[in-house]
Structures are given as C-alpha cells and as structure tokens.
C-alpha cells in the first residue's frame, strides 16, 4: 500500500472517529450478551415492544426474536473491507468514501474518466423519511489526478437537488439529470470550467411520474442503438441534431438499474421483484413472457447476515436469520472491461442490498431464448458476500480502468419510509438493532483480481480528434467503445464516415465493427448497401445488428429492406429469425399477421414460437385497445388525421414521423420530424398557424429542403384532424385539437397574407415557461407534507402536486413571481376529480402592489386552462378564488405560458 493510499484512509478513519466519538467493534458483532449500549452512554439497550394489534402467529411475525440486542455499529472502510467474502483471487479496495461523499446511489464516467456520483443525501435520514424531498441532493464529480487509483479531487458539480433520479454525462462538462416528482430532464453545463454547472437547459419532457421515490424514473442510459432508456418509462428518447425524439416501448419493469451487454441488449433491474427484467428481447418491441427464464433456485440468495431485518418478515427467513428470497435489488452492470478474468466479460451483475450480496448471473442460451442462473448456487454462495449488515450495494459499473466499481450506500435502513411505518415488522427490527441511527456514509469500491492489474491509461477523449475516437471503437474495454461512439455522435463529425465504413466492413474485431455500424447510424450516414451486406453474412451476431440498424433506414423511407426481413424470418439461427420477426412487427409490415402464422407452422424453436404467438396476441390487443382508447370524437379526428398524414404529409415528414432524408451526403432532411417534437407537443397554436398559413426558412437554425405550404383552404375539421393525429402518434402525447379551436385561430389571423417565418411564429405562440431555481412560488394556504415540514407550493409544477390545508374560501391565492417581466398569456393545471377550484380570477402585477384582473373562469374537473390577451409585460401572476367550497383546492402539472 503506497503512502498516499494509507494517508487518505487514515483521514477517513479519523473522520469516522470524530463522528462516532470512538470507533466501535466491527458492525457484524451484534452479540446479544452485552447488556449496556455504548451508543447511549452505557444505558441499557432499549426494550423492543410488540406493536399493538399484531398477531404473533402470523407468518410475518411467528418465531421472531425481539430481545434487547447490541446495536449495529458502522466501521471504517478499511474495517469493512475485512467483511467481504470473495471468489478466489478477487479483492475489494475502497477508492472514495465518507465524509467526501454521502449516500452515494449511482456513478457514471465522462469522456475524460471523471466520476460523477449521485448523492441522495435526504434518503431515509430517519425511520420516518423526514425531509426526504428537501433540496439537499447533489451530484459531485471526482478525479484521480495523479493516477494512483484513488479519487482524491472532487467538486460539487450540481447542488440543492430534490432527490435526483440519475446523472448522464453528455459531452464536455455537461450532464443530464432530473429531480423527483418532475416531468422534465434538464441539461446542466459548466461553461467557465470551474467544475460547477452554471447553465440549465430543458432537454426533454414527458419522462416523469410521481409517487414513492423508489418508484420513479431512474438510470437514464445511452445504449448502443443510440437511444436512451430509463426505468418506469414505457418510452425511449434520442438526441438528434434536430432535437430529442421519442418512441413508445414496452414496460421496462425496472426500478433502479439500466445497463447493456456487448451486443446492445438492454437489461433492467427490478427492485422489489429482486430479479433482472426484459433481458430476452429489446424493450422497444414490447413485453414478452418467457416461461422458465429464471432457472430453479435463482431467487434464493445466500446471505451471511442473519438479522431477519427485511420487509417480508419471518415468512422469508432461513433458520439462520438470513433472507431466503430476493426482495430488494438495486444497481446493475454487464461487465465489459478487460482487467478481470475473461469468464466475467459480458456477464450480468446486480446488487441485493437487503441480502448484502452482489450476484453474478450466468446466461444460458437456447433456441433464441436466454435463461438465468446463479453460477455459485451449488456452492450456496454468491459472487460477493459480506458479514457487515451495513454493506448496501446499490450500483456498479465497468470503469475506464477495466475493473468494476461497486457503490455501497453503507447505511442501516435501505427500504423507503412506506415500509417502515408505525406497527410494521421492518420498523420493529430496525429499532431492535438501532440501524436508523446509521446515516450519512457511503463508499465506492474497486473490484480487482490478483492476475489483472488495473489499467493506468487515462481517458482524454474531450481533447482527442474524431479519428482518435474512431480508433477507441476497437478498445478491449466496452466503456471506451461506448463513450467514443457517444461523443462521435454528439460531435456529428461526418469527416470520419469513410473510416467508419472501412471498420464496419473489414476490422478483425467483431465488436469494433458493430460499434462502427451504430456510429454510422447515429451520424445519419448508414447506407442500405452496408446493411444488406451484413444481412447476407453467415455471422448471426452481425445479422441481428443489421436487422436492428436497418429499422432506422426503413423508418426514413427505404422500403427495399422488407424482403430481407422476411427472408431472415426463416433463418436457421433462431436468434436471427426472432429478430427479423420483431423488426418486421415494430415496422408495421402490412401482412405481418400472415408472416407470424407462417413462422408458427414452420419453426419449432422455442424463441420463434414464443415471439410469433405473442406478437399475434399483441396485434389483437392493439386492435381492441384502439377501438376504446379515445372518445368517439377523438377517434374520428385521429383516424381522419392518419389518413391525411399517410396520403400527403409522410412524403416529406417520413412514414414514422422522423423526416425524409434528401439523400445528400450531409444527412439533411426534406422536412423536420414530428417524433418527440416540443413544437408539435407544445402549445397547439404553433401547429394550427403553421397549417393555416405555411412556414418558410430555417427552424431553430436548421435549413430544410422542403417548404411548408399553407393548407388554409382545407376545412377546420381537416386541420384539427391532422394536428390531433401527429400530436398523438410517433411517441407523442398531446391534447386533441377541436375544429372550433382551429376556427378561432383562423379568425384571429385572417388578415395574414404570407407564410410565417419560424421566428415570427414563435414570437406569436404562447411559450411554456419552465420553473427555475430563481422563481418564487407562494400560497395563502398550504397543506402539511409530514411532521415538521411544509408542502412547498412549488410542487404544483410537478406530479406530486400542491393543495391547500383547508377548504376553499374567497380570497385564497396561489402566486408565482418570475425574475424578468414576461407577456404572460395562459395558465394550465390539473386539479383531479375532486379538488378543483370553484370560480377563480387571474391577476397580474409588475410590482406586487397593484394587481390587475385579466381573466375569470369557473374551475372544472381535470385539466383547467385559462388564457387572456394582455400586451403588458409583468413578472407576477396569481390565481384568486372567488367563492367558498367545502373541498380543498389542489393543482399539479401547472404550466405557465407567455408570448
């Protein structure tokens, strides 16, 4: 151990001693013989009381030991290191720990190898989850400047976050992140290179949800196919030079963890379910049931901690007090590095923090399907075990140095407050061992092997040329390949296209060829000839990649690939046949049902049979769902709009709403795509005015070959139909547009003689203002969120929502102050089915003293919209109630628009 390493962890020991007053015995020493509690000045251990009304004979409680017990005591990282039970030859070494980081929950590395740490500093700071949504979360960035393996140099890149959901490095000094109970992903950038983000830009919207913090969007991850996937979202998003687009997917059934293997298969980690999900087929094709995909005994963990401190209670407890069924998994990684034994490469790993284990998963392939098993089951072991009850592995990642890093939250409580409430089994066990006192820690470990020293090659991708990045696509460490591909796509540097094509055709490294193919796809430079060449190869792994990448070409209008897909549905290799079926299904080939029935009759491989039958079921379900998805009026608009789009609009805007390429070498489109477009999904006035009067010139700085001619000679119903359709297909979600609304806009703009320019149109259309940290939000009444805390009125802008503490009274108000005067014009909010306001007024002010009423309206169930015309720029707006009602007043998803 070098001097710096020893010195660094001596400091950690000292910090721990300061926090604990003196280092206690190892955490795994919980002998009940001791009678005095050293944490409580030698007072007797507290008596554990059985909650009132508990049936001690019920399966959850029967046999429980609630005798006074020695507390679980946190120890230093070096002491915890002794608690690990590893496979032969492996070692765990700490590289970053408290007090430098606290409550780490996820890590990511940027192109220069700097490690971003997501710190959930408000997670379960006591047994009641007090202050869990206070703005105290942060994202720190750490660097090993002298390349000795210790991340000693750090900065708080982003602070004051409300339980942040993920961190995604997104180019030089830039990350993507999102807060809890929000719907928006933001891009944060450090523009002055001081290590702290100073700009915040909206990146994407529509990805959020509300509820328990364990059940919200997390782990947004850029995959090999250049799409980004996250948990709890039945959609994927993608950055393009024209903007962020979206597509629907199946339900990921993931909770905390998204990763991919060497061939781009995305794996999601279920939390409460305790097992991986959606690993058989890419999630974009939907959900498929695979019988027996978890082999016998897979769900049984082998834990060395016997405290029985888990939510299922005694019904899932072994005789030694350890867990007998996986119940809370978190964090995952397919190891793709080059500095651990080769048998680990492309193997899936995940943490089970309730069992204090890290599991390796063996993937057995058969007839186009994947089946999972614990490779150490016969030995009744796990890849990593710990005897320390505070070891909480919640994330892991292949690191730039070729090893695997493991994030250890190192804490007493791992389950969220909903499962630790008064009277619960889990609360009783936590209090028995006083584990609710152990907070504010966290360690990151490097897993190494004695035969494979870590790499000391430091990434410097931000300073490298695009040619250098292309060469990294053949790196033996998958992290390098992934990052180089992402940065090449973000740069959109097409000068390396010929080099990429050569790599894709002839490189001796199969994985380099695959990354080159997808980099070409991400640059908009993938040619049909290359895809067809791969489709006709005898390498099934390359055929699968070509089938998936070819979907993009088809979506952009190249129909020549359909015959190749049908041909490969009859491929000898089951994996290839299954992929051809999935691609044909998602592309919506007209005779797909006949093709699936043909596959059922001709190919007995289990994978083919599984996919063909379930695709047929999905088609039937979709047909039935479509008949009931919309009201009768909406169905007329949607169906009419689809017919119009397919006949007229698809020529320029693409059959899948992605735009149609011009065929030029620079990848230009004839017209912009609609998929995920904030212009299309935003205020409907934009699209209505565009169709009525046409649009010419650059759009957000990009030129297009085509010109959007005026369609105003068509009826109001015609325009309402096509706009309603494009706002609700191609992965979009928006309100339907009525012919009456089109008529209003037509009347208001009847004097316009020429097409709009984009800038002129945007200046007219109400634009949503997205909440910033310098907004001031207040209310005359607000309900309590929890003991000792108050619900922030700012929650009205998210899914969590805000409401008054009491019933509605005249004069109650909700107010927003923005930093700069704006021409405010519209407010939208959702009050649900019960807590909507009675009649209310909108008032505006420029100084907070003189208020001017600009609109009045009666509240209604669900979405409320109120607009007004006022050319005066103001920075304050408030809603004021005009009548008394028995129910409280609530709002969520509040939106404010300005012209």
TrEMBL record:
Pfam families: Cytochrom_C, DUF7133, F5_F8_type_C. Residues 802-899 form the F5/8 type C domain. Gene3D superfamilies: Cytochrome c-like domain (1.10.760.10), Galactose-binding domain-like (2.60.120.260), Leucine-rich Repeat Variant (1.25.10.10), TolB, C-terminal domain (2.120.10.30). GO terms for molecular function: electron transfer activity; heme binding; metal ion binding. Residues 636-730 form the Cytochrome c domain. Keywords: Heme, Iron, Metal-binding. This is Cytochrome c, mono-and diheme variants. It comes from Cyclobacterium lianum.
